[in-house]
Amino acid sequence: MTKTPPTRDTQSSDRLFTWLWGTYLKRFSAFLGLALFFMVIEGSMLGALSYIMRPMFDTVFIEGNESAIYWVALAIFGIFAGRAVASVGQKITLAYIVQRMAAALRTDLLAHIMRQDGAFHQTHPPGFLIQRVQADVMAINDGWRALVMGAGRDFITLMVLMGVAVSVDWRWTLVALVGAPLVLAPTRLVQKFVRARAREARDLGARLATRLDEVFHGIVPVKLNRLERYQSERYGALTDKLVKAELRAHAGSAVVPGLIDIMSGLGFVGVLVYGGSEIIAGEKTVGQFMSFFTAIGFAFEPLRRLGAVSGQWQIAASGIERLRELLDTKPSLTSPAKPKPAPKGTPEIKLNNVTLAYGDTTVLNGASFTAQAGKTTALVGASGAGKSTVFNLLTRLVDPDSGAVTIGGVETRDMSLGDLRSLFSVVSQDAALFDETLRENILLGRSDVSEARLKEVIEAAHVADFLPQLSDGLDTPVGPRGSSLSGGQRQRVAIARALLRDTPILLLDEATSALDAKSEAVVQDALERLSKGRTTLVIAHRLSTVRDAHKIVVMDAGRVVDEGSHEALLKGDGLYARLHDLQFKTNGQTADTAALAKQGLRQAGSGPETEGSARPGASSLISRIFARLSGQ
Known about the structure:
Blueprint: H1 13-25, H2 29-62, H3 68-115, H4 118-123, H5 126-168, H6 170-176, H7 181-217, H8 219-224, H9 228-280, H10 286-327, E1 349-358, E2 361-371, E3 376-380, H11 387-394, E4 402-407, E5 410-411, H12 417-421, E6 424-428, H13 438-443, H14 451-460, H15 487-501, E7 505-509, H16 517-531, E8 535-539, E9 551-556, E10 559-564, H17 566-571, H18 575-583, H19 591-598, H20 621-629
Parallel strand pairs: 3-8, 3-9, 6-7, 7-8
Antiparallel strand pairs: 1-2, 1-4, 4-5, 9-10
Helix pairs in contact: 1-10, 2-3, 2-5, 2-10, 3-5, 5-6, 5-7, 5-10, 6-9, 7-9, 7-10, 9-10, 14-15, 15-16, 18-19
């Protein structure tokens, strides 16, 4: 299970809001000012409504002044109309700010994540990053919007209503607020609790997103291995933990409004007892009491919302902390301050005594070889020999611990990352397609490609061969990860991309290993066209695909142990010859007898490829495997 990346200490709320304001909200300050203007109008209308209660009761109802009915009624209508217009205005303005800020934050996050190196993505699973980009941004939006509305509409409403209450009787106001001290201390404790639980819930949400990502992308192995129940139980266990964390966070958020309700109840009781006696005694009018009572009644609702803001902001604060941690992560692989220009033409590639280790595991150990300009160089060796690591070094997905990697005489770390990677086209075993149309998967955002050039590319890559089978031709969606295309078709799309890029260096990583014989022949023909005039490096386990390479570099345990042409390496009786014996029948032996010979059970030799059969009496390793699988 992938652990959630470590986090730093909790930061204060004011520092977090300062960062959010300076980085994203400040650019919308004009719209925020407009929203606050509408909030002031909306908030003050309740104060006006509570104030109008006094003439309505004393002048209209008690005194019976019939002429006052019309202006009081008109004033009340004006209050509600003004509040309606202000409410609509502030909601539309805030919605604009919320959506624009969320879009900017998500875009910045995605761009920052894509700049990170491989080590970052090894410790930050996709589900974790999706949770940051989607759920945390949403929580932040909810939090700051609640804070702004609390500071604007609710705080202003509260102040206006308290002003009306004080204008009636300041002593009544003090009595109404008698329970306020009971709220302060618990609120501080609840804030810390809510932020901790919200952070826990965000972490669990990231783990759930990771689990979903793995299940959906691995749905075929899940079905074939009958893992539906197992994966459902794992997801259910995480969901139960998330539910508990969310419930604790929401319970904490609900405490503060509950305390305010208790304070409100105490205040009403006090005012009714204290103020009621003054009204009975004739010291205060019914209109004054109703004006005061309305103001205090209206005041407790914005007070409750202000109490809830605390919980919402703590949830948002936990999201801001996570995003700041992410945005503060700097990639270890960056362009130099003064980059050298990339080599022109078709360059030579050279590794000179390169070493590289991941932790305690040595991947390359003094590897050296040269790939001649415009020629094809193949890298062969057992899994884990370091072949794919060479490709990662060339494109600077990783830097060597020592030694030099040069392209056209220029070290890779001396070029800017953009210039360096513009030298390469890559066709790998797993052709990564996007859930877009076939056209978009070939163009990859380029708008400078003419239809004639696109047609030339798809014909050269044999994409045109299967276009008639697609309902909308080039404008047919290829499905998630190109799932609506076959493996051979996806490879041809990847080759079309490479042809369109027209770079001087071509990297082929097991480009035909997963294809059937017919598809391999078509793809191999397209690859041969693609590699003409380019410096080409090929990784292959199937030696039949590299025998025509100008040079074959044999790797073992991170070292280059041999190099030469196919024929020369076979005569050398080295590792390449032994690998060849494992894949082809040589000197009347099969791969089975060669494998047994490697274990010391039979002596095997090497020689030119023949069509001979297995030596009489030779044990068949494959027969043994099938027998064991079939229970014989």
